[in-house]
């Protein structure tokens, strides 16, 4: 029997003020996007800001729908917009933040599984890692050097190819 050991290394910052200045600014943009989220059902707002290789910043926020599966998370709103508007341009850094209208979220909140898979597809295709910073509405911030640190056993196109 073989054993597979998977280790993920994440950096934790006590607050946004400890982040590099450019990441603080990106997180501020994510916070602003978060406040524009359409979340009347969950009251859980999510904002995303993605810095592209060309210097552009793409924003996204969650968009809910009464037919629950029809909504879309902030991360996928942003990554799909980036892919549609700037095809072939790598995503370098992603900042994510959440806020509940029902309670204070002071725990860093990572992307959901569907968003991790969507981001992994883009990371694999661009051939370079996406650095991800995520937080609640306040408190500590977690940094992952790659989507692979958040989804180590990714499913990508290599599984669909004939051998």
Automatic annotation (TrEMBL):
InterPro entries: APOBEC/CMP_deaminase_Zn-bd, CMP_dCMP_dom, Cyt/Deoxycyt_deaminase, Cyt_deam_tetra, Cytidine_deaminase-like
Residues annotated as the enzyme's active site: 75
Enzyme Commission numbers on file: 3.5.4.5
GO biological process: nucleobase-containing small molecule metabolic process; pyrimidine-containing compound metabolic process
Residue ranges annotated for the CMP/dCMP-type deaminase domain, each copy included: 21-158
Binding site for Zn(2+): 73, 112, 115
Similarity comment: family membership: Belongs to the cytidine and deoxycytidylate deaminase family.
Cited PANTHER family: CYTIDINE DEAMINASE
Name of the molecule in the record: Cytidine deaminase
Name of the gene this protein is made from: cdd
């Amino acid at each position: 029997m073989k054993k597979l050991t998977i280790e993920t290394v994440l950096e934790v910052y006590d607050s946004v003020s400890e982040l590099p200045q450019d990441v603080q600014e990106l997180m501020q943009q994510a916070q602003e996007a978060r406040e524009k989220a359409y979340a009347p059902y969950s009251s859980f707002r999510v904002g995303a800001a993605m810095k592209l290789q060309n210097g552009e910043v793409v924003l996204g926020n969650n968009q809910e729908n009464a037919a629950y599966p029809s909504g879309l998370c902030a991360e996928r709103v942003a990554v799909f917009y980036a892919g549609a508007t700037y095809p072939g341009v790598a995503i370098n850094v992603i900042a994510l933040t959440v806020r509940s209208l029902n309670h204070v979220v002071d725990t860093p909140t990572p992307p959901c599984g569907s968003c991790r898979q969507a981001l992994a597809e883009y990371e694999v295709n661009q051939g370079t890692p996406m650095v991800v910073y995520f937080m609640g509405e306040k408190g500590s911030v977690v940094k992952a050097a790659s989507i692979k640190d958040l989804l180590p056993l990714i499913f990508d196109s290599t599984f669909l190819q004939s051998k």
